[in-house]
Design goal:
The protein is mostly helical and 298 residues long. It is built from ten helices and no strands.
Length: 298
């Protein structure tokens, strides 16, 4: 066992003891009363992890023809030393599901065309959930930025709030949050992008062999080239591709985002205009004082 694995185990053990201390000190339950629920949660997590690993392996065998394609039963999991969980217990965090998919496909890469199609279909629901997570992360950051702005406005309007307001700490926290958001979103978008490219390729070349695709490619004979006056312009032969719709584009969400950004820009523009006017008034007042005549008595 590696040092990192031992460190992880120590962290898990520490977290479990901390949770037990919280239960013991902050509730009226005795250790004999909360031990079974805690152990049940740990067992369910282990059973869920094993279930998804085995399920992915079974689906790969079905796609490769080593196992008939039919609904899975308890015996399929039992002979692989796993439990078939009921549907209600099959929900899991997205990051865990992505890690399991990566573990299975790395250990047994899909070599054949059928296995590659099966892997793409297996990842499709994860890709949809990933796109949803990207939107949630972006929305969370926007809400945090709006909350920071409201805190600044409140500090400017109330002296008591200004005493507790730390502009530098808040800006530093927002900057760190934005940096972490960009890293997370970039990695998640990369996974969705790779899946979209695989989908594009498999839809046009489902048999993993060259085929004529309107607007993209086509094999032509010399007779066809001669019939086209020996033109080598690709469009003469491949034709025009049918229009494609971007299914991942959320018009309503994009419109809401534009509305929020426009409101922020209007607010910032109003603040900037007020600051410019204030500075202008100060300059004008200073010049008026400097140019005013000074009369001395006789």
């Amino acid at each position: 066992m590696t040092a990192n694995a031992l460190k992880d185990i120590e962290q898990i053990e520490s977290s479990l003891w901390e949770a037990a201390d919280q239960l013991r000190s902050n509730s009226k339950l005795t250790s004999s009363e909360y031990v079974m629920p805690v152990l049940g949660i740990i067992f369910l997590r282990h059973a869920a992890n094993r279930y998804y690993v085995v399920k992915a392996a079974i689906e790969a065998d079905q796609a490769a023809g080593r196992m008939p394609k039919r609904p899975l039963i308890q015996a399929d999991f039992k002979k692989r030393r796993a439990m078939m969980l009921p549907h209600a217990a099959q929900k899991r965090p997205l990051l865990d599901a992505l890690a399991t998919f990566a573990e299975v496909t790395t250990k047994t890469p899909p070599a054949g065309n059928a296995e590659q199609h099966a892997a793409r279909h297996a990842f499709a629901p994860l890709a949809d959930r990933t796109k949803g997570l990207v939107k949630q992360i972006d929305l969370l950051y926007k809400l945090a930025a709006r909350a920071a702005q409201l805190a600044q406005d409140l500090a400017g309007a109330h002296e008591a709030a200004a005493e507790r307001y730390d502009r530098r700490a808040l800006c530093r926290t927002l900057k760190q949050l934005d940096a972490e958001r960009k890293v997370a979103v970039e990695q998640l978008k990369l996974a969705v992008y790779v899946h979209r490219q695989i989908l594009w390729l498999q839809e046009r070349f489902p048999d993993a062999a060259f085929a004529a695709v309107p607007g993209l490619c086509k094999a032509v004979t010399r007779a066809e080239i001669e019939a086209a006056d020996c033109s080598l312009t690709p469009g003469r032969y491949v034709g025009v591709a049918p229009p494609e719709e971007d299914e991942g584009f959320d018009f309503e969400q994009t419109l809401r985002d534009i509305h929020v950004e426009l409101a922020d820009l209007n607010r910032e523009a109003a603040e900037l205009a007020a600051r410019i006017q204030e500075n202008f008034d100060e300059i004008q007042g200073a010049n008026s004082f400097a140019l005013s005549p000074v009369f001395k008595g006789d």
